[in-house]
Specification:
Layout: H1 2-18, H2 33-43, H3 51-57, H4 65-72, H5 81-87, H6 90-103, H7 105-115, H8 119-130, E1 139-140, H9 141-150, H10 155-170, E2 179-180, H11 193-199, H12 215-228, H13 244-248, H14 254-268
Antiparallel strand pairs: 1-2
Helix pairs in contact: 6-8, 6-14, 7-12, 8-14, 9-10, 10-11, 11-12
Keywords: Signal
Protein name: Lytic murein transglycosylase
GO molecular function: peptidoglycan lytic transglycosylase activity
Length: about 270
Amino acid sequence: MMKTILAGLIAAATLATAAPAFAAACGNDGAGFDRWVADFKQQAPSKGISPAVLDRAFANVVYNRPTIRADRGQKSFKLSFDEFMKKRGGATIISRGKSMKKSNAALFASIERRYGVPAGPILAIWGMETGFGNYMGDQHTLSAVATLSYDCRRSAYFTEQLYAALQLVARGDLSTTAKGAAHGEIGQTQFLPLNVIRYGADGDGDGHIDMVRSRADALASTANFLKGHGWRTGAGYQQGEPNFVAIQGWNAATVYQQAIAYMGAQIDGG
């Protein structure tokens, strides 16, 4: 019996040594990140990502400590609606939103015809997320997403985001040097990579979805996101109305949802 058990253990050890690693080990600090990257690059071609894309995408990827600090420091929205509006500059967003609606009237009319979403809530989102494209983040996007994919806290979720980011690189819709928010959010309305894959729209007709440099792409994609989350043409979007559900899909915080609805209504004219 002992010989049989020993033989079995030796065989199992031999198989374990010979078998490829099918899952890169996550970690909670940067010590194992380089090994994780090497393992990930071995696995990724089986998911349809070419070695050439992997080499380009990971050329400048590093373990991103600002991303980890931001992830560990997240706090729930505990402000009242009035406090939140003041902190986020709600009055300024409304004022500037009205101006942006006028100066981009043709674009917003086209988006509403296509998706059924009026300008107000899109402008409210645009204003709150990046100050109308002025503050899109300064963290290397691929490093941020790869770091969170490696990090054990939400590894599976962000591994999905990393594969989506690599698809965007492969099709020319994400630069390998792109910068954005700490969790890998991209562009003027801060889409995570998988949402670009699912809801990204070519608003300017150039054959690409550029969430950073194309205002039309970012805003059309935002409308498409809302439509994909149940937006109904012509229905209201305040709390208790049908389209508030779509706004809830944008952000889980109730006060954030309320702010989008309120500011959107003010921008749309009451």
